[in-house]
Amino acid sequence: MAITKISNSGVNGSKYDIVSADNYYMEPIATTLVGVGGASAVTFSNIPNTYKHLQVRGIATFASGTNAIILQANGDTGSNYAWHQMYGTGSSAGSNGATSTATANISVASVSGTVGVFVTDILDYANTSKYKTYKSLTGYDNNGSGVIAMRSVLWMNTGAVTSLSLKFDTGVNFAQNTRFSLYGIRG
Amino acid sequence: MAKTATYALIASTTGTGSSTTISFTSIPATYTDLILVLNGSLNTGNNTRMRFNNDTGANYSMTVLTGDGSGGFPAVGSYSDSNQTSFSYPGYYDSSMSMNIFHIMDYSNATTNKTYLQRNSKTSNQVQTAVGLYRSTSAINRVDIYTASGATWTTATTAKLYGIEAGNA
User: Fold this and answer.
1) ipTM above 0.90, yes or no
2) Is B65 on the interface with A (CB under 8 A)?
3) Which pTM was predicted?
């Protein structure tokens, strides 16, 4: 049990000092740093239901191809996701989306030689009365080209999120120095 | 039990009314990501720039998505630049308050180039989001935001640098 309050109420004399015990509203839950062998997927399991929202922050490196990161909840690989985005490519801007799809991309599709980054919020993840919404800010830059996007994803399931799996939509491995970090936000 | 500091305030500063530059120096390497929140205005309209590690080389580039409902710029558009000697953001500021939030990812690693994500809201001008690349594998230990042509940050300007610490790997 976390200590959230310390008090000298009821204590005789001045033996004890009052200590401020901060309430941390954003707490790290877990981090995965991919090693030299690479990884086909990264999964955060046994996510506690004690927070209000989750945040996933990450950078991804890879050896080849053009790859976007999929975030699937509770092992759901079915066509139970929808997404929309606004994006800019450096030469044009646009928007698009998809419904009833298995590919819930939270990142843009980064090209080989670049690093793709994202910050994704999963709102009310433990609520069992509503579908779950992710919002994501993501992009990569390649010194004269790139993509920046704001995305939203819907997971059409009222179950609490207890695990999150990340992988590339192409099946390519995450390379060394890829990092994904999961945070809980209290509310 | 050791405290876990996430979204910890590293440093905070305000505009002086006479300074053209806001600086964060000696940034500790103990966090995973940085978040810089800049809310401010200038004494007169001016472009602003950002540099890391006081590096004046042509090592900066960006891809931007922008929206402006008042004409004079594409209503929704995108552009990119390359081989710049600084980031062209936070962008244009004037006497009305505007806000920028930068997520500088994996700033302290010495293996990869550095990438940041940004959102800004300029009340007199545009709403924008961008990704920036600093082509250096050096850890970032300094951030400078400065005006391009001598405009000064007002005393209403605040800039705060936060550290995000990841959990155990």
Assistant:
1) yes
2) yes
3) 0.90
